[in-house]
Amino acid sequence: MPTVNVDESMIALARELRDEMQQFLNEYSFGMREIETKLEILRDDFSHQHSYNPIEHLSSRLKGVESILEKVQRRGIQPNFTAIREGITDIAGVRVTCSFVNDAYRLFELLVGQDDIGLIAVKDYIAEPKSNGYKSLHAIITVPVFLPRGTVRVPVEVQFRTIAMDFWASLEHKIYYKYDKQVPQQLLDELREAALTASDLDERMERLHRQIRGSEEPVPAPQQMTSRGTHEA
Ligand code: 0O2
């Protein structure tokens, strides 16, 4: 095999870039873990205090490098860490799946109401679904991450949705990619109809749930709590 002359300085540069990229992604991963912990604490406290669990499922994902670069290109963002930090706010994502719409809103309020959380933007696709039928409540929030080199505020996209919305979105996502984003009109129409059926199911289930639990409010309104999380008289 012929020997290739490897430029040492190029290798050093590549290693530096790799380390910088790893540090960049680590910050998002730490922020994501902070948010997951906050949601787990809310869930566990409700389960203990009210024998009621408002969260059916919690999941999180870190955007892959390829997917970040695709968004950088699509949005015309400068390919440097500072510009990417400012321009892309869904590198860290947490999804909260609830049984009922009401719980999705309550958990959103309880999370963004916490002292160390900053609210950057909200997209309420539950109140205003997308034209394809997609529903979810999206919040871009920031959370402080305390590192030896200082504190960084990390943006995390949190999606709140019901089980029915989640079922619809995961199927729609699969169809979208199966047809390489060119979904036949008939399927699009059926998906829109299925989204309406899912919304109808959400309403019925919430009504039934209210009948069973009566006027009892399993998840307290956040304004009833002090900054230390204790209930005000
Ligand atoms: P993944 O794999 O879930 O992370 P963008 O579309 O990202 O350029 P923006 O404004 O950031 O623009 O998007 P938005 O509206 O806040 O939605 C971002 C995320 O919401 C998506 O992330 C999906 O998770 C979800 N989402 C939004 N619209 C739809 C939809 O029509 N169908 C489904 N199934 N999910 C949707 P990613 O990064 O696309 O994917």
Topology:
Layout: H1 8-50, E1 55-62, H2 65-75, H3 81-87, E2 92-98, H4 101-112, E3 118-124, E4 137-147, E5 150-162, H5 163-178, H6 185-213
Helix pairs in contact: 5-6
The structure holds ligand 0O2.
Give keywords.
233 residues, alpha+beta, Beta Polymerase, domain 2, 51% helix, globular, disordered C terminus
Cα-based radius of gyration, to the nearest Å: 21 Å
**Cα-to-Cα separation, first versus last residue:** 80 Å
Work out the helicity level: 40-55%
- What order do the strands of the largest sheet run in, or round the barrel if closed? 1-2-5-4-3
> Segments where pLDDT lies below 50 for 5+ residues?
223-233
What fraction strand?
A: 15-25%
How many beta-strand elements? 5
Structural class: alpha+beta
Report the principal-axis shape: globular
Write down the overall mean pLDDT. 90
In total, how many domains does the architecture comprise? Answer: 1
CATH superfamily: Beta Polymerase, domain 2
CATH C-level category: Alpha Beta
H/E element order: HEHHEHEEEHH
Characterize the structure shown.
This protein is of the alpha+beta class. It has one domain: Beta Polymerase, domain 2. Helices cover 51% and strands 20% of the residues. The chain has six helices and five strands. It has a five-stranded mixed sheet. A hairpin with a 2-residue loop joins strand 4 and strand 5. Helix 5 (163-178) packs antiparallel against helix 6 (185-213). The longest helix is centred in the first third of the chain and has 43 residues, at 8-50. The model is unreliable at 223-233 (pLDDT under 50). It binds ligand 0O2.
